[in-house]
Amino acid sequence: MADTISFARGAPSLDIVDIEGLKAAAAQAFTEDPAGTTGYGTSIGYVPLRAWIAERHGVAPENVLVTNGSMQADAFLFDELVESGKPVIVEKPTYDRTLLSLKGRGAEVHMVSLQPDGIDTDELAQLLESGVRPTLAHIIPNFQNPAGYTLSLAKRQALLALAKQYGFTIFEDDPYVAIRFRGESLETMLDLDGGADTQNVVYASSFSKTVCPGIRVGYLVGPKDVIAAIAKRATNTYISPNQVAQSIVHKFCVSGGLDRSIATVKAALEERVDLLTAALARELPEAEFVAPDGGYFMWVSLPEGTDVDRLFDAANERGVAFVKGTDFLLEGGQNTLRLAYSGVTADQIDEGIKRLADAYRSL
């Protein structure tokens, strides 16, 4: 069998990771702050990075907690706000790890349809009017995983209005925000709501998509009382997060490495989206999709009646991998799949889609 071409995992290919920049940042970290870099630290994270993130978001450092990746941030927030048997809102489809995490905590998960301009706020309003009272709504506003869609400004404002009216927290999970390669950036719901102390929004992001996934550094921005409560959980979980990784990220950011890395990633992924959409149109014209304006992922729908389980097996036999759409849903999606274009190089895309099309024709 030919070497597998993987559209499965949302990780950057090695050619767009700034290895030399990370080496330099590591050397700086150990040279300029050996004690802070090698010490335990505290649960709030590496103090200079926390301050840098706070300044970037226009909030106080007390509004920020730096964690071991954004999934750790998610887990802490869910532990703080999600109760067994109580409703939570997620997008339909949503990140599979979010579904697993919420279900594992016994939450009553309500999926609300996702449209190309984001969650269907009219459908959400109807759900709330019916008496459902969620504690939290998990929203990936920019280049959503798995769909690649972006929440419009109008829907951001509508979602905030619903949160205020019905008293739930918006969890603005935003790891892809910096990877916009087309169009104009939209204001975060955190900013639209007036900042971190309004009690309506908790924001999360990550350096995994802009620096490298192995660095495992994420963060939360939210009301001081929520961040303080989560910091206590963090202390009891691991005393402190990885100070070495966070110190390296800090040096990478302040040296200009982050901006250079983002520019590299955006240029590469824009090219890959163009190649991917052209290949799908040519090789698999039955496929329906919306080309994303940023991020790592694209959602593909095939004609009704397509069996994605059979397609998955046939694709594996031909050396091409993807993630089944059913993984991101509680039900349905048997004719859908997610394609990640971040980890494939430009010269792999045409061949990968040819193999996928051949697998589809074999069904």
Description:
With 363 residues, the protein is an alpha/beta fold. The chain has 2 domains: 5-16 and 259-361, Alpha-Beta Complex (Aspartate Aminotransferase, domain 1), CATH 3.90.1150.10; 21-255, Aspartate Aminotransferase, domain 2 (3-Layer(aba) Sandwich), CATH 3.40.640. It contains 13 helices and 14 strands. The chain has helices at residues 19-32, 34-38, 47-57, 70-81, 96-104, 121-129, 153-166, 189-192, 224-238, 243-254, 257-283, 308-317, 346-361, and strands at residues 5-6, 64-67, 87-92, 108-115, 118-119, 136-139, 169-173, 201-206, 218-221, 288-289, 297-301, 320-321, 323-324, 336-340. The strands form 3 sheets. An 8-stranded mixed β-sheet has the order 2-9-8-7-6-3-4-5, with helices on both faces. Strands 10-11-14-13 form a 4-stranded antiparallel β-sheet, with helices on one face. The model has no long low-confidence stretch (mean pLDDT 97).
CATH superfamily heading of the largest domain: Type I PLP-dependent aspartate aminotransferase-like (Major domain)
Largest sheet: 8 strands, mixed
CATH class of the largest domain: Alpha Beta
Multimerization state: single chain
Contiguous helical run count: 13
Binned strand content? 15-25%
Keywords: Aminotransferase, Pyridoxal phosphate, Transferase
GO molecular function, one term: transaminase activity
Domain Aminotransferase class I/classII large: 5-356
Organism: Paraconexibacter algicola
List descriptors.
363 residues; alpha/beta; Aspartate Aminotransferase, domain 1; Aspartate Aminotransferase, domain 2; 2 domains; 8-stranded mixed sheet; 4-stranded antiparallel sheet; 13 helices; 16% strand
